[in-house]
Amino acid sequence: MNAHLPTLDATRPFIMLVEDDSAVRRSAQLLLHAKGYGVRSYASSKALLADPIALGAACLVTDYLMPEIDGLGVLRALRSHGWKGPAVLVSAYHSARLVELATREGFASVIEKPLREHRLADTVSRLVAESRGPSGGSGG
Questions:
Q1: Which pTM does this prediction carry?
Q2: DSSP letter at 15?
């Protein structure tokens, strides 16, 4: 476990980021942080699911294929604990079938790897804004 966990700023929405590839995780974390989000990143799905702070997140960004529990299972587990936020699935194995499965599980978006940074940032920004209020409302 990472001994140096960032403190979360209560004024910034925070994002749960689950990615087993450390380089991809770090890159996505830095990007989202630069866009104004607090980011809590996890190297495994089990680490995220063991963190009680995760249920306060504004959005989930998770890799699809990971050891232990895949991205679909992560969202299923969070939903079973009452988390209702938007979720983004990231996968190097993008297909129409995966998009269908992810949509059925409740993912708002599926993004293909390699990640295009603007796509991830724009998707997260849109989903967080939509989940905070009716369209046209000021994002706060």
A1: 0.87
A2: E
Give the residue with greater pLDDT, 8 vs 140.
8
Burial class of residue 37 (count of CB atoms within 10 Å of its CB; 0-12, 13-18, 19+): buried
What is the chain's Cα-based Rg?
A: 14
What is the number of structural domains in the chain?
1
pLDDT band at 134 (very low <50, low <70, confident <90, very high): low
In a domain, 46, yes or no: yes
CB hemisphere CA count around 53 (13 angstroms): 17
Evaluate whether residue 56 is within a structural domain.
yes
In a domain, 139, yes or no: no
* Coil, strand or helix at 40: strand
- Is it the case that residue 118 has pLDDT exceeding 70? yes
The single-letter code of the amino acid at 25 is R
* Share of residues in the chain with pLDDT > 70 (%): 88
Residue span of the structural domain in which 87 resides: 14-130
CATH number, position 83: 3.40.50.2300
